[in-house]
Amino acid sequence: MIIGLFTSVLRSGGIQRVSRHIGTVLQTLAHDRDDECQLLSLNDPVGDHSFQTNDLKLTIRGFDRHKGKFAWAALKLAHNNDLVYVAHPNLAPIGLFLKFLRPNTRYVVAAHGTDVWEPLGLLRRWGLQSATALTAPSNFTARTMVKTQRLEAARVSVLPWAIEPHLLRRNGNAQRRPASLPNGRILLTVGRMDPAEREKGIDEVMRALPAVLQESPDTYYLIVGEGDDVTRLQRLAAELDVKEHVVFIGHTSEEELAGYYDACDVFVMPSRQEGFGLVFLEAMAAGKPVIGGDHGGTPDVVLDGVNGFLVQYGDIKTLTMRLSRLLSDGELCRQMGEAGRQRVHQHFTFETFRKRLTQILDQNGLLDGSPSEFQAGRDHSI
């Protein structure tokens, strides 16, 4: 049996999206091997939920945050030699528990970013250390988790996230521009506005905006997302005297979000909190140049001077220069946008993700009980 243990799958967010991709790969592997596949989600509503993803129908059983029932369900399903995919470090103790009761249980733990950048508690760290294999979405996160969680580097593999397939089947076009947008040039950020995530760089873009407006007075900064930090950011916009040029969009549907990507001139999020940065891929798929922070997993996605620019968090002067340059040079925007689109198609499709995850499982002997001719961790980049 192949068992997938997730924190959440049905909700929106980067971790939820990659969890759906993982579930799809696990279900496909089970089908190809005539194995059974069971997908369990701790935080989704109680009961079985079916949904379509990547042209495959998946069913996942939710437990509405009942940790005991979730762990008990995993225990009842697991047997010796089963493959258990633990899709978040917070669930690693369950893998450890299963291995203690079923010594031959093999489990993988997926890390995502800041969840492993700082030392975890003893039980979670032990759960990581006892895993057969671990994955991280970027080189930075892989290196950092090896150091902070005291892991063997050979068991950690880089598994870059993938863009949703339907976003690759479209091209940006002016007809998708939301009717409510102001006329002018558009800067866009997509992300949660939470007090715990203030280093995403929204403050920095606002602080750069007064100087940007001096050269490009018809520029507007759109922020898509929700969170408890919206009120503070609105006050900051007023303090900087740019509130007429800052638009808080709030939550949007996927179709509406695609329209914002298509309408923007530059996607900007100079964050130092990104374990990967899925929103950069979405903007790149729409053919837009991107500006990200030269931190975390972002440099794995954004190649400085190729498909966008990287800036140090807090370097308002450089951020201002990069924004002004892109807003004043349409040909550079077009070139970088096309380079980004090609990069997504070459490196960040679901098919690439599927092949890479399957390869990682194979290299670690998780598909047939013994390692293939590849050695575990041989081709990961740490």
Features of the shown structure:
about 375 residues, alpha/beta, eight-stranded mixed beta sheet, 13 helices, 14 strands, about 40% helix, disordered C terminus
Short précis:
The protein has helices spanning 14-32, 67-77, 92-101, 122-129, 139-148, 165-168, 202-215, 230-239, 254-263, 278-285, 316-328, 330-347, 350-363, and strands at 2-6, 37-41, 47-53, 56-62, 83-86, 106-110, 133-136, 156-158, 185-190, 219-224, 246-250, 266-269, 290-293, 308-311.
What do these coordinates show?
Helix 8 links the parallel strand 10 and strand 11. The chain has 13 helices and 14 strands. The C terminus is likely disordered. Helix 3 crosses helix 4 and helix 7 crosses helix 11. The two termini are 31 Å apart. It has an eight-stranded mixed beta sheet, sandwiched between helices. With 382 residues, the protein is α/β, with parallel strands linked by helices.
The largest β sheet comes out as:
8 strands, mixed
CA-CA gap between termini: 31 Å
Report the total helices. Answer: 13
Order of helices and strands: EHEEEHEHEHEHEHEHEHEHEHEEHHH
What portion of the residues fall into strands of 2 or more residues? 15-25%
Describe the global form. Answer: elongated
- Strand order across the largest sheet: 3-4-2-1-5-6-7-8
Q: Percentage of helical residues? A: 25-40%
CA gyration radius, whole angstroms:
21 Å
